[in-house]
Amino acid sequence: MKSNPPIIIKLGGSVITNKRRPLSTRKRVIKRLGLEIKKFLQNNPDEKIILVHGGGSFGHPLAKKFIDERGYFDDDAFVRIIHVMRELNQIVCKILIDVGLQVYPIQTSCVFRYERGGLVFLSQNLLEEALNRNLTPLLHGDIVICDSGYTILSGDTIVAYLAKSFGSKRVFFVTDVSGIFLDFEKKKIIRKISIGSIKSKIRSHLPEIPSILEYGVFDVTGGIRTKLVEFTKYGQPGLIITILNGLKPGNLYKSLSGHRLGTRIIVV
Question: Is position 2 within any domain?
Answer without folding.
Answer: no
